[in-house]
Amino acid sequence: MPMTAFATGDTLTEKAWSKKVIKLGMDRSYFEQNGYVGEDPNNIIVKYTELAKGKGDVIYLPAYGELTGAGVSGDSAMEGSEEPLPTYDDAVTIDQIRNAVRIEGAMTEQRTSLALRQLARNALADWLANLVTEETFAALASSPTRVVFGGDATTKATIEAGDYMTTTLLSKASTIAEKNTPEIKPISKGGAQVFVCVCAPDSAYDLKISDSVWGQAMREAMPRGDSNPLFKNAYGMWDGTIIQKHKYITTSVTFGTSANLAGAENLFLGRGACAWAFAQQKFWKEKTFDYQNSPGVCIGAIYGVTKLVFNSEDNGVITLVVYRTNNAEAAYA
Predict the structure, then answer these.
(1) Angle at CA 161, nearest 5°, toward 159 and 164?
(2) What domain range includes position 94?
(3) Burial label, 43 (beta-carbon count in 10 A; 0-12, 13-18, 19+)
(4) Does 80 fall in a domain?
(5) First-to-last CA distance in the chain?
(6) Which helix (H) or strand (E) holds 125?
(7) What are phi and psi of 147, to 5 degrees?
(8) Has residue 77 been placed in a domain?
C-alpha cells in the first residue's frame, strides 16, 4: 500500500542539534587543578607576580644554601671564623602569548543555534591552560641534573626491557631526595608531607600491572577518592609519594643498546621545582570587524616558565628514567 514517508536524508526531515556541546580540554592547568601552584615557596610551582607591579621582562630569583661549617667551641675566637652565606640565583624571562577566534559574520551565527562566542571563549581558555601545562612539563624535563634509572641501568642506552617503573624506584627516589645536598623537600598536602611523582600513562600502567607490591598496597590503602585530599586526582600513593599520570611526560622509543626500546622520563617533584612569573595573567580582548558584522575574541597572558636550578642543580625534581610498555590501539579488521 502506498504510504507517505520521509527518509533520513530527505530535506524535509527535521535535524536536531543538542545545545550541550562536549568540551575537549581543560580550563585550568594541570598544576592549578591539583593545588600545586602558589606564591609560597613551599609549592611545587612557585608563582612570582612582582612584574605585574612594574616594568621589565626578567625577574631574578634569589636563594640561599645551607651553612656547613663546624662553628667554634668554648672561648675560641668567633671573629675571623665567620662562615659566608652561600647565595644563588635563577631567572625567569616573560613574553606575551595570545590566540584568537573570529566568527565570519551575522549569517554564520544565524545558521546555527550554537553559542559561538561562548564556545570560542571556552576553547581559548582551554588552549591557554593546555599551553601553560605543556610548557611547564617541558621545562621540568629539560637538561636534568638529578636522575635515577630503572633496574640496574646507568644511562638511557643501558635501559633493558623490564626496567619498569616500580615501587622500589619510588622509594629510592624518595630516599635520594632526602639525602641530597641540598635536599628536595616534600610539599604539604592534606595535612601530610608528601612528594609527587607524575608518570607517563604507560608507566602508570606498568606500575599497576607489573608490580605486585603496588597492587597489594593499593588494596590496603586508606580510603581513596575526592574526600581524601591525598588521593584527589591521584593514581595512588606509595611511601609518602602521590602518583599521578599525564600525557606530557617525555617518552621515546630510542632507549636501550639498539635504540629501539620504549622509555619514559617520569618526574619526581618536591618544593620549588619550577617557577611561573606573570606580568599579566589571563586577559580577554574583544573586537568586531567589517562594520560590526564579524566578532572576534582574544585571550592572552604575559608570563614565563622555568625549572628552578641553583648552583647547577635542579632544585626540586628528580627524573626517573625507565622502560615502559608501549600501549597502542590495534587496527580494526
Answers:
(1) 80
(2) 30-64+86-141+276-307
(3) buried
(4) no
(5) 42
(6) helix 116-141
(7) -135, 140
(8) no
Q: Which residues of 254-293 are buried (b: 16+ CB within 10 A; e: fewer)?
A: ebbeeeebbbbbbbbbbbbbbbbbbbeeeeeeeeeeeeee
Q: What's residue 292's pLDDT?
A: 94
Q: Does residue 332 fall inside a structural domain? A: no
Of 212, 209, 208, nearest to 235 (Cα)?
208
Is the Cα dihedral 258, 259, 260, 265 positive or negative?
Answer: positive
Do 162 and 97 share a structural domain?
no
What is the average pLDDT value for the chain, to the nearest integer? 90
225 and 105 in one domain?
no
Is residue 101 located within the same domain as residue 197? no
Q: Which three cell numbers stand for residue 214?
A: 603496588
Phi then psi dihedrals of residue 182, to 5 deg: -75, 150
Mean pLDDT value across residues 40-67: 92
Report which of 40, 14, 4 is spatially closest to residue 187, judged by C-alpha positions. 40
Indicate whether 132 and 242 sit together in one domain: no
CATH number for the domain harbouring residue 124: 3.30.2400.10
Burial string for 301-310 (b: 16+ CB within 10 Å, else e) reads bbbbbbbbbb
Average pLDDT score over residue span 5-21: 63
The pLDDT tens digits of the residues spanning 304-333 come to 999 999 999 999 999 999 999 999 988 887
Residues in the chain: 333
Q: Are residues 132 and 225 in the same domain?
A: no
How much is the average pLDDT of 242-268? 98
Q: What is the pLDDT of residue 332?
A: 86
Residues 152 and 243 in one domain: yes
Domain presence at residue 71: no
Question: What DSSP line would sit under 256-277, residue for residue?
Answer: TTTT-EEEEEEEEE-TT-EEEE
